[in-house]
Request: fold
Amino acid sequence: MKIDRIQYVLEVAKWKSITVAAQNLHITQSAISQSITAVEEELGNKIFIRSRKGIELTAFGIKIIEKAKHLMLTYDGLMEVANSWGDELYGHLKVATIPGTMPILINVVTLLKKEHPNVHIQIVEKGSQEIVRDVLNNHCDIGLINIYKDTKHHEDLTVETLFNGRIKVCFNNNSILAFKKSLLPQDILNQTFVIYDDEPINWFIRNFEEHHGNLHILFKTNNTDAIRTAIKNEIGITFALDYSLEYEPTILNGETNARYLENVDSTLIKFCLIQHKKQKSSPIAQAFLEKFKLEIRHCKY
Reply:
């Protein structure tokens, strides 16, 4: 059985469409149809059936797709080892990260590309829960997330704590909060908040409100530029983890101020590295993580 035929079958199963699969793979629809027929004949059973909804998996097909995914992971790992044999590294790496780490990751990628120009790295910025889903579904190789006290780790994940973080209040430097020597919980109860919608931040808010009273939240978003704009225009203030602020441009240029809250326990949020237990770390991932861990040693947190 040819490996490219398995790839075609997986792509059709993913999109439930031969047309979409052909477009994504840049081959003809007839080539995909012929490959599916060849695989079904070799296996002796139908993998797909046509319905009003499009292409559907048979009961046999569901079992085959599950095995095919594991087979492709093994094949990809085999090719990684083959391509990286010797001093040079080849291949692709996809990293998903929470906001705030991009300056560090740019440094890491730059160093890695100088040593291994044939490595291709993609970095996407998402919330922690979405990153966990991506790692579990093998949509990315490495996840960098926030984990809070009550988080339950999925059994298929390896989790490594890189450092602990504390929550800061972020506000425009013209805000009345900027003139206070210290910030207490009661100082922010009458403020309007714009919140980055990530579960560890939401957990902190729930914990804060339970002990100190409700906050006025204007909106939640996963768009960091929207939050920056709201703070710049003095529409609201926000919460952020200290380690995500080290390279924050609006703090570096003096537009935004950030302070810890007094009398609030916010030390239970961790910055963690996650990977899938069943997906062996490739030579590229190992080289990336080695440089990333070295780079974060220079951070304050």
Notes: The first helix runs from residue 3 to 15. The CA atoms of residues 47 and 61 lie 4 Å apart. The chain has three domains: 3-83, 91-161+270-296, 167-266. The first strand starts at residue 48 and ends at 51.
